[in-house]
Amino acid sequence: MELLERVRRIGLVPVVAFESADQAVPCSRALREAQLDIIEITMRTAAGIESIRRVKAEFPDMVVGAGTVLTLEKAKEAVDAGAEFVVLPGYQEDVVAWCVGKGVAVLPGCVTPAEIQLALQKGLKVLKFFPADVYGGVKALKALNGPFGPSGVTFIPTGGVDQKNLADYVQVPFIAAVGGGWLCSSKQIKEADYAGITKTVKESIDVLLGFELGHVGFNTAGAEQSEEITKTLVSAFHFPYLPGNSANFAGAAVEVVKSTGLGKNGHVAIKTNNIDRAEYYLAKRGFVVDPATAKSKDGKTTAVYLKDEIGGFAFHLLQK
User: Active-site residue among 56, 128, 255, 279?
Assistant: First the structure.
């Protein structure tokens, strides 16, 4: 998987400053225990380069980036240490040009149309938006998406994003991922509260995915039985009767299929903020999708079933 596509699927980027390189491996292990295998190690401290080196040595499959890179020399040093992507607080021509020339993923900070245009001229489509809260957050990003959306630009906002407002960002399609220090706070690192880091990340992943029950589907022998069952539910619970071509609905939560569909007993739809990210994390939990069942619209997956039934029900993801 291409690096930035993997970052997009992961969806969250912990931005971390280590006072000592000894903190880097146990902190990264805490992230991985929560199923987050990415970290942006900033160059704000002298321990940054050695921290990158140690994390890549311990966890070769972890995506490791260098953040707060201010000079070309530091970018080269970070890449030599094992950094796979370089993050700049602003747009810096010499660093961007070197990274592009070397095939190193680079995320320059771009908050103005002029900076975005410079990035586009270098072929960059994933940009850092920092500090997100100061420069208008989601509202500003939506405004920038107007002229630049057709170019395929997406953003990784950081600065002022935390677990409380994360939900505002993760449902926006042109936000590639969300970064921040709340995932691995300086207080948690200082106190060696690695269990706390794992807990915070797990909770943030839950917000990222936004799983919720969509509807439950009944299998039937045909249209006549579907109508009978649906009208019985409507009569009992006063749900609105919503007829359809392949199924009838009793309200929005109960679908009565006009055939024997997937699942021994029927199916359950689970809504999510992003199907691609849901697939990524479900696979880590041992649940894989069946690509043959995928439905799409405008090139984006809108629904897909898991391969295995649960309790006699087929489960499918549904894009919110």
Answer: 128
